[in-house]
Amino acid sequence: MKTVWITGASSGFGAASVRWFAERGWRVGAWARRADRMEALRAEIHAAHPGAELWFEPVDVRDAAAVQAAWDRRPFAEVDVLVNNAGLARGRESIEEGSLQDWDEMIDTNLKGLLYVTRVVAQTMVARGQGHIINIGSLAGREAYPGGNVYGASKFAVDGLTDGMRLDLTPKGIKVSQIAPGMADTEFSTVRFHGDRAKADSVYSGMQPLSPKDVAEVIGYVASAPNHINLADVLLMPAAQASSTLVRRS
Ligand code: NDP
Ligand code: 8X3
């Protein structure tokens, strides 16, 4: 039985990935801050798959000490796959009007949080001489768009970091991949616009975005590739999207 560790498991891609892996018999360890959401997810999965081995713990990935302590408490000694998914955007203001708090939150979560989690998990994988780390980047980490400034920069950082991690970890037997989705309808835009649902919904008006399940299926596919194959970099977009700024709408 294989084990996957997923951050940002309380909604969106992370929750859909927990479902995908649990339904296929993987052991799943998962972190996010909202314990109630993870508890509901656990109940849902156990109702359909009573034998599923799940471990959920509320963890804020921005807190390096909490990440280390939670990792030390994990019930599964060996983890085969880490999905670095926790992340968020805050705001879409032009750069001179951006909020310092929003900037800190994005950089602390999308970059520093990913680093804190990677460090503890990679140490365990290196000691074992095998493992696979999948970073969730973004189309926003490949090309800038107006108002995407700091969010995009945090995802450009994930793109560069993925390459750096691959150079460090390939000689140690660890695969490192990135999946970079385009527009997907999760809680992402609601979080970005600080709870303004109407504004969030308008992002996807007249087009079909990716669903959380679409992205989870690709994460699962990348995680399930034979050992000698690394799907190193996957750019995944809705068919209606050609770039960050060109989207076909009805
Ligand atoms: P959601 O808002 O639905 O999910 C984000 C997840 O990240 C939640 O489970 C949230 O849990 C978790 N999270 C946020 N901050 C923290 C934190 N400090 N510590 C632990 N967990 C945290 O959005 P998505 O599913 O869309 O986002 C998942 C990833 O995909 C992000 O990295 C995002 O940048 C990226 N992405 C999203 C795209 C989209 O269009 N939706 C496209 C490309 C990439 P909680 O709040 O409970 O902590
Ligand atoms: C999220 C994709 O284009 O909404 O990473 O910023 S986008």
Description:
With 250 residues, the protein is α/β, with parallel strands linked by helices. It has a single domain (3-236), classed as NAD(P)-binding Rossmann-like Domain (Rossmann fold). It is 43% helix and 15% strand. It is built from eight helices and seven strands; from the N terminus they run βαβαβαβαβαβαααβ. It has helices at 12-23, 35-48, 64-72, 100-128, 149-169, 188-192, 197-202, 212-223, and strands at 3-7, 27-32, 54-58, 81-84, 131-136, 174-181, 233-236. The chain has a seven-stranded parallel beta sheet, sandwiched between helices. α2 links the parallel β2 and β3. It is globular and about 45 Å long. The mean pLDDT is 98.
Highlighted features:
single chain, 250 residues, Rossmann fold, seven-stranded parallel β-sheet, 7 strands, 43% helix, globular
Largest beta-sheet characterization: 7 strands, parallel
**Helical segment tally?**
8
Contiguous runs where pLDDT drops below 50 for at least 5 residues: none
Q: Outline, from the CA principal axes?
A: globular
Helix content: 40-55%
Query: What is the CATH fold-level name?
Result: Rossmann fold
Strand order in space, largest sheet: 3-2-1-4-5-6-7
Q: How many distinct beta strands?
A: 7
Q: What is the CA-atom radius of gyration, in angstroms?
A: 17 Å
CATH homologous superfamily heading:
NAD(P)-binding Rossmann-like Domain
How would you sum up this structure in a few lines?
Helix content is 43%, strand content 15%. With 250 residues, the chain is α/β, with parallel strands linked by helices. It binds NADPH dihydro-nicotinamide-adenine-dinucleotide phosphate (NDP) and 2-hydroxyethylsulfonic acid.
